[in-house]
């Protein structure tokens, strides 16, 4: 058995011998044609006798078309028709056009004449594919005949592959162009073919595009125009947005106070309100007291109605310490000087009597007891005289209803 190496050596020798013979033959042909055609085709430039003589040593590299690959092994005349050298086409496709030299087979996809963008002169098979060189839409090749096409499980799409694919890799898409998809959203967005509803998604059987667009799942909108169900059947915090933790306490239907356009700017019907005013009017759930508000522990509705904060209910004191309505002390602050429901008594010793506020108004000269002796204020601290009647002092002497003492 011949060794592989010796076979190859022989093969090589055979090869060289073939080339040598071929070239010798060609040289003869050339010499012949140079002689025969010399007179007939004067205008045609041909290799000179000198060149022909040197033809065997001719360095084809100098032509700018090196004979490499398979071209090394073919007759000079296969390319240099009629012994013509200068003006021989350089562009692959001008020879490989099916007449001058074998060209593309009929199933070859449309391509430019620059065969060497994809092929070498070694072989037509094993082409390197350069997409820069394509002149046809993707699908003219990517049809599973000429080149890899869509598989049976491919998403339903138009044939414009490059709406979603680049030319580098098929099995990863940067961005799916939804103008090029076919079928309903759910036909793909079922969690298998394409992303579906996440586990915690609101329960719905509606088509995705009822609420979603194709750009992002986060942009949710909803057309309420044909909705007949009660708002709260969806707006329960799981199917759709519900009341948040800080929402005012109510069991009424959402549309009693809300429109379907926005949750903000609700209108409020107090007849539906549950709980004391302050359970809502705490400055969080609903309007609360201003920072300068009169400091009081009483419920709002002791002073306020439900339709207007500035329209007050006349305040009725219930404390026994209240001296009674004054004709002159008209503002709350006249007595509630610290804006607090607890009074700062000017003369606390006489609280809760008139003198608790009016010590300064006391004129001892006008208040004389037995012996015409001026009375100590403690004896008459209730100016209206209802308690500490002294001799000479009339009951009901002073009244809060009077503008003077
Ligand atoms: C695969 C085709 C091919 C083969 C085979 C080939 N040539 Fe060429 N040859 C060319 C091309 C193409 C040119 C460049 C023509 C041009 O630039 O005008 C060229 C140019 C030449 C020129 C220079 C012409 C000039 O005046 O510029 C010579 C001489 C030549 N070839 C000789 C040969 C010889 C001898 C052989 C065989 C040993 C050979 N060629 C085989 C394609 C070929
Ligand atoms: C001047 C004409 C000419 C040019 C230009 C030319 N070829 Fe060729 N080529 C030939 C001829 C003639 C053959 C031999 C065809 C045959 O098998 O009969 C050949 C053979 C080949 C083969 C071998 C085919 C086989 O069946 O083994 C390949 C591959 C090839 N050429 C590729 C190219 C490429 C690529 C280019 C451009 C870089 C090119 N050729 C440019 C004329 C040309
Ligand atoms: C854009 C790239 C590209 C261009 C340009 C191109 N081809 Fe091709 N060609 C291919 C591809 C890819 C194949 C398939 C190769 C394979 O199956 O390995 C192919 C296959 C072929 C085949 C069949 C090979 C076989 O036996 O299976 C021939 C012949 C061929 N091309 C000739 C040409 C010729 C001639 C030109 C220039 C006129 C050309 N091609 C231009 C990419 C190209
Ligand atoms: C002229 C024919 C042709 C056109 C047009 C064409 N391709 Fe190709 N494409 C090929 C060939 C041939 C290959 C390599 C052989 C193969 O993979 O079947 C290829 C390979 C690819 C690959 C690599 C496949 C892989 O997994 O390796 C991608 C991706 C691709 N093409 C996308 C595109 C896109 C996108 C377009 C349109 C912008 C396009 N092609 C246009 C012929 C073409
Ligand atoms: C609307 C977008 C879109 C269009 C248009 C589109 N594809 Fe795809 N293609 C995809 C998506 C999505 C995948 C899956 C990729 C992934 O898993 O990331 C895919 C995967 C593929 C795959 C690999 C997996 C498989 O299914 O075989 C190939 C091959 C493919 N596409 C070819 C094509 C071809 C060829 C065309 C044009 C005829 C095309 N696609 C058009 C979106 C598209
Ligand atoms: C033919 C299949 C198909 C159809 C039909 C389809 N999509 Fe898609 N969609 C996809 C694929 C594939 C992706 C990207 C991969 C994924 O998200 O799983 C996608 C992505 C999305 C995204 C995410 C976009 C991003 O970049 O984050 C949204 C949103 C979307 N689709 C909404 C929709 C809506 C709404 C419809 C119906 C109007 C719809 N899709 C119809 C296949 C489809
Ligand atoms: C009735 C309206 C409605 C329908 C129909 C609907 N969704 Fe949603 N979807 C929502 C709401 C509301 C959210 C929550 C939005 C948020 O958290 O920003 C959401 C969220 C999502 C999210 C998560 C978004 C994220 O990143 O947090 C995905 C994914 C999603 N939906 C997919 C789908 C798919 C797929 C369909 C169709 C099969 C669908 N949805 C049908 C209303 C709907
Ligand atoms: C069939 C279910 C359903 C019913 C019934 C329903 N909605 Fe909605 N609504 C939604 C979905 C889904 C959204 C969008 C996602 C979200 O905000 O939770 C929405 C959104 C809203 C929005 C927010 C609008 C925006 O763009 O910010 C308001 C406000 C609203 N609904 C009010 C109502 C009111 C009021 C009713 C009763 C008249 C009602 N909805 C009935 C499902 C419903
Ligand atoms: C009795 C009246 C009333 C009812 C009934 C009511 N709300 Fe409200 N809601 C309000 C008021 C008032 C606000 C605060 C409005 C504002 O800040 O402009 C509010 C605020 C909201 C907000 C927050 C708005 C924001 O973003 O600041 C949501 C969400 C909301 N409500 C949902 C609901 C839902 C869901 C229902 C039914 C289940 C409902 N509401 C029932 C009165 C009501
Ligand atoms: C269940 C919650 C709730 C209760 C209880 C409640 N309110 Fe309200 N009230 C609201 C909401 C909500 C508004 C409208 C939004 C706002 O002003 O903060 C409102 C508005 C008002 C307004 C302003 C009306 C206007 O048109 O300017 C007044 C005044 C008022 N409430 C007084 C009261 C009084 C007094 C009580 C107790 C009798 C009371 N509210 C009980 C929730 C409540
Ligand atoms: C003891 C009586 C009293 C009580 C109780 C009371 N307020 Fe007032 N409130 C007043 C007075 C007095 C004013 C000042 C009216 C004016 O400026 O004309 C006022 C004014 C207001 C204003 C209007 C502020 C402005 O300038 O617009 C708001 C709001 C208000 N109160 C909220 C409340 C709330 C909420 C409660 C219960 C939590 C409450 N008030 C309890 C007496 C009271
Ligand atoms: C003539 C003096 C005087 C005037 C004017 C006056 N108060 Fe008083 N008020 C008192 C006294 C005294 C007390 C008991 C204070 C204490 O125990 O510290 C009191 C107590 C209160 C209390 C707590 C307990 C109660 O229900 O009686 C409130 C609330 C109150 N006043 C609100 C008002 C408001 C509002 C105004 C104006 C509309 C007003 N007062 C005007 C003297 C006055
Ligand atoms: C909590 C304090 C307070 C108490 C208690 C009080 N008053 Fe007054 N009184 C006032 C204030 C304030 C005025 C307004 C004039 C002023 O600032 O002195 C006033 C004015 C008067 C005036 C009018 C005097 C004038 O010059 O305009 C009379 C009369 C009067 N009080 C009688 C009484 C009587 C009688 C009692 C006991 C039953 C009484 N007051 C208890 C605070 C009080």
Small molecules held by this entry: heme C
Q: Percent of residues in beta strands?
A: under 5%
Rg computed from alpha carbons, rounded to a whole number of angstroms: 54 Å
Arithmetic mean pLDDT: 80
Low-confidence stretches: 1-53
Structural class: mainly alpha
Descriptive account of the structure:
It is built from nine helices and two strands. With 405 residues, it is mainly α. Among the domains are: 4-88, no CATH class; 137-182, no CATH class; 317-405, no CATH class. A two-stranded antiparallel sheet has the order 1-2. The longest helix is centred in the first third of the chain and has 37 residues, at 4-40. The N and C termini lie far apart (148 Å). Mean pLDDT is 80; it is low at 1-53. The structure holds heme C (HEC) (13 copies). One heme C binds next to α5.
Secondary structure: elements and pairs:
Blueprint (H helix, E strand, L loop, with lengths): L3 H37 L8 H5 L22 H4 L12 H4 L89 H4 L42 H4 L42 H4 L51 H4 L19 H4 L9 E2 L3 E2 L31
Antiparallel strand pairs: 1-2
In brief, what are we looking at here?
Among the domains are: 4-88, no CATH class; 137-182, no CATH class; 317-405, no CATH class. It contains nine helices and two strands. It has helices at residues 4-40, 49-53, 76-79, 92-95, 185-188, 231-234, 277-280, 332-335, 355-358, and strands at 368-369, 373-374.
From the structure above, extract its key features.
405 residues; mainly alpha; 9 helices; 2 strands; 17% helix; disordered N terminus
């Amino acid at each position: 058995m011949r060794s592989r190496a010796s076979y190859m050596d022989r093969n090589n020798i055979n090869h060289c011998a073939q080339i040598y013979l071929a070239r010798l033959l060609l040289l003869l042909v050339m010499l012949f044609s140079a002689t025969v055609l010399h007179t007939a085709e004067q205008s045609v430039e041909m290799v000179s006798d000198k060149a022909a003589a040197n033809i065997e040593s001719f360095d084809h590299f100098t032509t700018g078309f090196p004979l490499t690959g398979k071209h090394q092994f073919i007759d000079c005349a296969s390319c240099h028709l009629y012994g013509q050298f200068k003006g021989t086409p350089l562009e692959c496709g001008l020879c490989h056009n099916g007449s001058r030299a074998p060209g593309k087979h009929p199933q070859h996809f449309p391509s430019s004449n620059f065969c060497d963008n994809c092929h070498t002169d070694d072989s037509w098979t094993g082409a390197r594919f350069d997409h820069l060189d394509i002149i046809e839409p993707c699908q003219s090749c990517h049809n599973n005949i000429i080149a890899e096409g869509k598989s049976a499980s491919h998403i339903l799409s138009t044939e414009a592959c490059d709406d979603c694919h680049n030319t580098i890799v098929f099995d990863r898409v940067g961005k799916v162009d939804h103008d090029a998809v076919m079928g309903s959203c759910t036909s793909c967005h079922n969690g298998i073919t394409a992303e579906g509803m996440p586990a915690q998604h609101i329960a719905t059987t509606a088509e995705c595009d009822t609420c979603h667009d194709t750009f992002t799942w986060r942009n949710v909108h909803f057309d309420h125009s044909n909705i007949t169900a009660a708002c709260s059947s969806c707006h329960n915090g799981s199917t759709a947005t519900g009341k948040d933790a800080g929402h005012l306490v109510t069991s009424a239907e959402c549309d009693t106070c809300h429109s379907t356009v926005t949750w903000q700017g609700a209108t409020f019907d107090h007849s539906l309100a549950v709980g004391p005013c302050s359970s809502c009017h705490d400055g969080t759930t609903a309007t609360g007291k201003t920072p300068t508000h009169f400091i009081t522990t009483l419920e709002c509705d002791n002073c306020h109605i439900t339709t207007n904060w500035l329209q007050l209910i006349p305040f009725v004191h219930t404390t026994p310490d209240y001296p009674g309505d004054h004709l002159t002390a008209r503002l709350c602050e006249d007595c509630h000087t610290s804006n607090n429901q607890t009074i700062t008594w000017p003369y606390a010793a006489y609280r809760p009597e008139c003198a608790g506020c009016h010590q300064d108004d006391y004129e001892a000269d006008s208040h004389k007891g037995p012996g015409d002796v001026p009375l100590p204020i403690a004896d008459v601290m209730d100016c209206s005289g209802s308690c500490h009647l002294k001799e000479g002092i009339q009951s009901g002497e002073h009244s809060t209803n009077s503008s003077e003492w």
